[in-house]
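Technical appendix A lists one of the benchmark inputs used to test multi-chain prediction within the project. The record comprises two sequence entries:
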Amino acid sequence: MSATGHDPIEEALMRVPYVDDAGFTDRVMARLPPSRRRLRVAILLASGGAATTVAALVLPGAAAALAVALAGLQAATLAAWAVPLGLAATALLLGEMARAEGE
Amino acid sequence: MPASDADLVARIVADDDRRAFAELVRRHQSAVRSLLRRLSAGDAALADDLAQETFLRAYRGLSGWRGSARLATWLYRIAWNLWASQARRAADPEPAEPEPPRPPADAAIDRYDLERALGALRAEERTALALAYGQDMTHEEAARVLDWPVGTLKTHILRGKERLRRLLSAEAEGAP
């Protein structure tokens, strides 16, 4: 330390330059394990598909009965139920996928 | 107002919020990488590898961060542990005589000379100086990160500074 109390060693040690990110954050993010949200979408799709398959295999009569019942309904009544339900299910699925993509 | 570290951690733990984690990395990457560069005596590639691993470990262990210490201090501790393990694996030899730093042209010491000179210190001295200066930590916090008594930290700081002074001034005197 100099007579004036000025210590170049301490001053140099205190100077910590900012390190520019330069893609560092992206490299870290790329190494993270798959997100739980993506996993959730995959499970949702897989379990929906599996449930449909099992139902068709185990309950062939039920599928035929459902077709007859649906055929007996007025087209307008069917649409009144099917369109909003389909839209809601699609929106839910797309929402989950968008959130997962956004990560 | 930007979210606090604690808010971001809560979002990551509750909902695996990757945007929140990216924000944490961006916020702390410079400090963690600077620390590791000093510990690695300027080896930026090694420092960046260890810094990436630091954040990956932090991600896996975030639910264990209780908020009693600052997040930065917790990250420094992970970084230091990783660096210490790597140094043990590399059987960090006692420092050889360093490549001579360029003598300072004026009173200011060049960052590259400083990092090279830090490489000539014993690992404990380098660690103590890297954590105690420029990381916005008190000696008590630095000692907690290292699991050292404060007195030990201060001793290594004094010895490290003295060796740095000798190294840099010897070179300055030997300059043409």
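The mean pLDDT of chain A is 78. The two ends of chain A are 51 Å apart (CA to CA). Comparable benchmark entries are summarised in Table A2.
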